[in-house]
Design a protein that fits this description.
Blueprint (H helix, E strand, L loop, with lengths): L2 E3 L1 H6 L4 E7 L9 H17 L9 H12 L10 H10 L9 H13 L2 E6 L7 E5 L22 E4 L4 E4 L4 E2 L12 E7 L5 H18 L1
Parallel strand pairs: 1-4
Antiparallel strand pairs: 2-8, 3-8, 4-5, 5-6, 6-7
Helix pairs in contact: 2-5, 5-6
Length: 215
């Protein structure tokens, strides 16, 4: 299995950078207290960090809002994953406790303000591509019924048969969602601002260290 960024994405977003972590044979059903504590601790940090700063105006979030505009999605209606989590925290809510791996990548995403996500690798069909949608691809959102289609020109992750993520980092698919029963998992850490590679490597490295530590 390989991950590819299409020419269309790179032409439109030449500074896009993607890090992939492949995890094999883990037990994701333990509900590790230490992982949840990390997530809750970073929520407190976010409240302090954004006390006097609008999330939408932070450079690492604004770049995603600009990207959404570039492929035709209103960022006021569709928040990237980082902005959505930050808004939830600032409104007094908590990031949902999903499972250990998801909690870990959400922690890293909030700590570094870099987008992170993942898929159950056993559910992926063929290779994965970050590309611009044609508009006829199939997508079933986590927790939703029925098949929908992305808008033409929208940034998507897709395998050979289905969309795995819409609007780059807005919604992930039911098909490959990470559950407590997931054993083999692919994670992605991504950014689109200039000179993001170093930050991607740092965030990915920390995420790998935490996976080794807890699993």
């Amino acid at each position: 299995m390989k991950y590819t960024i299409s020419e269309g994405i790179l032409e439109k977003f030449p500074t896009a950078c993607l890090g992939i972590i492949s995890i094999h044979g883990i037990d994701n059903a333990k509900d590790t207290t230490g992982i949840l504590k990390l997530l809750r601790s970073i929520e407190s940090g976010i409240k302090n960090q954004f006390q006097n700063v609008k999330a939408s105006e932070h450079p690492r979030i604004k770049c995603w809002r600009d990207a959404y505009c570039a492929f035709g999605a209103k960022p006021s209606k569709y928040n990237c994953s980082i902005e959505a989590m930050i808004k939830r925290i600032l409104e007094g809510d908590k990031v949902p406790d999903i499972n250990d791996v998801v909690n870990l990548y959400n922690y890293i995403s909030l700590k570094h303000l870099i987008s992170a996500g993942g898929d159950d690798a056993d559910k992926i069909e063929g290779d994965v591509m970050l590309t611009l949608a044609k508009g006829d691809e199939r997508f079933k959102e986590i927790g939703q019924e029925g098949i929908k289609h992305p808008n033409a020109g929208e940034a998507i992750f897709k395998d050979e048969n289905d969309v795995l993520g819409r609007r780059w980092n807005f919604r992930q698919s039911e098909k490959t969602k990470i559950t407590k029963g997931s054993k083999n998992i692919n994670l992605q850490v991504e950014a689109i601002y200039p000179a993001a590679k170093k930050d991607i490597e740092e965030a990915s490295g920390e995420l790998m260290q935490l996976i080794r530590q807890f699993f």
